[in-house]
Amino acid sequence: MEISSKENTHFFSNNTILPVDRCSFKSESSSSKEKQSCCGGIKIFLGALSFVYFAKALSGSYLKSTITQIERRFDIPSSLVGVIDGSFEIGNLLIIILVSYFGAKLHRPRIIGAGCLIMSAGTFLIAMPQFFMGRYRYERFPSTINSTVSISPCLQDKSQTPLSTLEKSQAKMNGGCEKEAGSSMWIYVLLGNLLRGIGETPIQPLGITYIDDYAVEENAALYIGCVQTVAIIGPIFGFLLGSLCAKLYVDIGFVDLDSVTISPKDVQWVGAWWLGYLIAGVISVLASIPFWFLPKHLPKPESRKDSSTSSEQSKFIIEENKDQGASCQQQAKLAEMAKDFLPSLKNLFGNPVYILYLCASIIQFNSLIGMVTYKPKYIEQQYGQTSSKTNFVIGLINIPAVAFGIFSGGLIMKKFKIGVLGAAKLSLGSSFFGYLLLLSLFAMGCENSDVAGLTVSYHGTKPMTDYEQALFSECNSGCSCSKNDWDPICGGNGVTYVSACLAGCQASNGSGKNTVFFNCSCVGTFESSQSSSAVAGPCQKGNECPKMFLYFLVISVITSYTLSVGGTPGYILLLRCIKPHLKSFALGIYTLAIRVLAGIPAPVYFGVAIDTTCLKWGSKRCGGRGACRLYDSSALRYVYLGLTLVLGTVSIFFSVAVLWVLRKSSSPQDETLSANGERGACGTKSRKDNFVHSDQLIQSTYWPEKETRL
Prior knowledge:
The protein is mostly helical. The protein has helices spanning about 1-65, 65-75, 80-100, 110-125, 165-170, 175-180, 185-200, 205-215, 215-245, 275-290, 300-305, 310-315, 325-340, 340-350, 350-375, 375-385, 385-415, 420-440, 465-470, 520-525, 545-565, 565-575, 585-600, 600-610, 635-665, 685-700, and strands at about 490, 495, 505-510, 515-520, 535, 615-620, 625-630. The radius of gyration is 32 Å and the shape is globular.
């Protein structure tokens, strides 16, 4: 009995131990599975968000690459194109507050997915006018459009006047002409871009906070850095797509390409601008799909379950099982937060470093946004390059330089353990040397092309003051010409004439791009002329222009890199110069100010300034001023670079003021600032502490639309 009793005791003791082992094994197993599930879920979200960032950066940069195409297709001035470009920021601002506040209460992944669908709908809407406007019509003399009947360009008999001229003379009497020409279709492009801005709104605030809530704390900065890196790749593909589409004729697939009599070098050429928007729209739709299958919540990482910091979503949601007292307490907290709003705003704007840096950023972003928006146009008009080559160069050279500059700025901060004062110096030095390099571009321009009646007289001397009257001369006085036409021909003397009629040409031979004009009276009277013939199309820019373009590219790339180096230090400076509990509020005000005071107005007033340099405006089929056909190269260079440089110089003065305030507030022994005083410039502990906190932020640096800043 004793033996059996001992055996039973041993048996039961073993049985009591085994369940405990299984339970602990089960607990470890479930913990491991939870960890794997958490890591797997956040990585899937990370991949999906990265693809969305790529999609929105691609469509945004593609819009920049099609600025000149849209201008020509819809016959609108640069100022109106600036309004279209700024509509994205308007759409973003319309719902940014609602999305940022209510989005945290709802299913964040699905809101991001819905935003992607709205963004794709806007992208598709931008392309829609192409399918309702009819075929693109450019100005060409009938003999160059594969006509078998030879018509004299110099129309001495009004019965021989081409239909295009008659159309323009009768346009004002035709009530339905404006609608038929589709001159107001640009509104759909504006609305589509507005819709793009609305759809893009939830991606950044909800996506980044979702990663921050559910990622392992030490990995959050790395994950956000990965997303931002992918966002920089998007514009490269956007501009390369713009380069590809610009090579294709606008009506490809709808017309016989052999009948097209203009080439990509012609100022009337319009590429297949709409095709890229369809591709970008499809990519946005694909990017939205994963978010519909992602959960509202992910398992919290073990390292963050006991953390005092709760997720953004949990801060807004009031659980149902809370009693009435807790609900009242929550309402009291909300009332206290609302009451604290104005004092917080006063505290923020009472911070001299913050307000000075905000002013410097607003002015600098005005400079950069205006410069980037019209950079393709400047290269095309100044150096005579095609839209395709321009977009290719920007996408393949400029944007990688920006990405490398951002990375270098973060690396310098980390390598040399730079504090707040050092960050201010680095940011200021980057801006100073960047704009100093920009100053050298004034010497790297091309002279105006010789265009009879616009840049030179018909006798080869300086032009008259009134350009419109100068188009007519004794050599073409016997011709019935219109001053509104733009159908340039290149004379044997190397001078471009606005049209064959204004060149006084009496006969033509051939068709399409191979048309040759003979007996051109104005070509023969030019002082250096040895023949009186001309060919279709404008003459090329001077021999020095290709060399100047090469110099421009080199300086432009170095400038892009230099200006980008200061981005990360400037952002760290912004974060370190405000009290910790005001960081989110300060960043919100900063982003709002940049969008309202730089993103919206800069493209508009830059466009207005560029329009003042136009020498020859096109005319719409139904009357009225169309897109500009010829710019004054020198005036364009001084206006475009001058406006950029003036704004940049003003921003540097504000940056110097920031540095002065920081120096005044810093102690001699340390480059970091004292935290004493209610209105202290920055609240930091030590140089080392500064660096430790900024180390993670270097990888996750973000400022509005940095991926398209060149």
